[in-house]
Specification:
Layout lengths: L14 H8 L5 E8 L2 E8 L5 H14 L5 H7 L6 E3 L2 H8 L3 E6 L2 E9 L28 H11 L5 E8 L5 E8 L5 H12 L9 H8 L11 E3 L2 H9 L3 E5 L5 E4 L17 H31 L6 H11 L6 H21 L2 H21 L5 H14 L5 H21 L2
Antiparallel strand pairs: 1-2, 2-4, 3-5, 4-5, 6-7, 7-9, 8-10, 9-10
Helix pairs in contact: 5-8, 9-13, 9-14, 11-12, 11-13, 11-14
Length: about 425
Amino acid sequence: MKPHEKVPVHSIKSLQELMQLLKKSKDFITLEIASNKSSIIISYFRTLIDINIFHEEVLTYIKEKSFDSLQDIRSVLPFENSKITNQMEDIQDSILNGYILIQFDTDELNGLLINVSKKEKRDITKAEIEYNIVGPQIAFVEDLDVNLNLVRRKLPTPYLQMKELKVGSLSNTTVAIVYIEGIVNDQNLQEIIKRVSLIKTDQVLDSTYLIQLIADNPNSIFPQFLNTERPDRVAAVLAEGKIALFVDGSPYAITLPTTLIDFFSTTEDYTMPWMIASFFRLLRLFAFMFSVLTTPLYVAILTYHYELIPKELLETLIISRSKVPFPPLIEALFLEITIELLREAGARLPTKVGLTVGIVGGIVIGQASVEASLTSNVLIIIVALSALSSFTAPIYRIGNTIRVIRFPFIISAHLLGL
């Protein structure tokens, strides 16, 4: 079987075969309790269930009384979400998600499933990546139900609808498609449902996996969907007729369809007068263009187009580069790669250490590069301003695009000029 080929549901043909497979795992427990003329068999994963609830509200009741059928057990146990089923796929999925399976040894086809799953939940915290000064501060967590609850609290309307799909032959991850009926574009909705349904992979552990699997062009360095950690942003785009995708276990939602301007807007813009919000969006767009094009322009002008530089500035550039032995291309690539190394090192180190490395490393390397005549003062200023401009992008993924696209632009400027 290929690595990304979906495992067929019919690969396990019977409940007996499933039990034999599960018993190979040390954390799978099977208990047998005598009851009247037969025995009750209870099967579960001890690592997935809340053991206290199981002992106090399931095992105690079953040991104290005698039962003749699964329905008798179900009527006694205090669980509303229990179910009796003989569906192989349902039993398999339920056990692997923290349900216990109760059977009589005389009936191998039917089982009573009771949800006593243990869920470790992280407390709702402030948004760390999309931080806002004004407006709501809460962010999504890794629990799908909590995230959907946050969205429903923002949009308490019966028209807010949700569809759930299972993705991943091994992870069996729940993907929720959320939209507002009557506002959403039906063609877009059906296309998204189709794309998610056709995904064939072994695991989907985060919303970023989903982005790569449903994108029109997964090899593009430009983000095609926007992922966000903010419930208020999701509520805003849903009200505009867009769609949100949630992946169980991921603290980020995907919103689509997306335009380029969406990556330069923040939820804080909604709290400002339109003129001020528009000014800041244009400022971020200008910073994007400045960050991408300034260093390539430096390389192109110094390589081919000296005549475009005013005489006074040209004299400054000549003096600044008089001792630099490298052409503008090598000089620019050296500084840009150095900046990226400092960024990456700062991101991977602990917060306080990373901040120190970024500041001290930038100052020391910049000063040493000029004194060693490896680069000019002017280019250091340009590269520093370009790096600073890239940080104005409010969405992390477009920031990565800015970092990557700068390098082919620099090389093209050296080869082709303006």
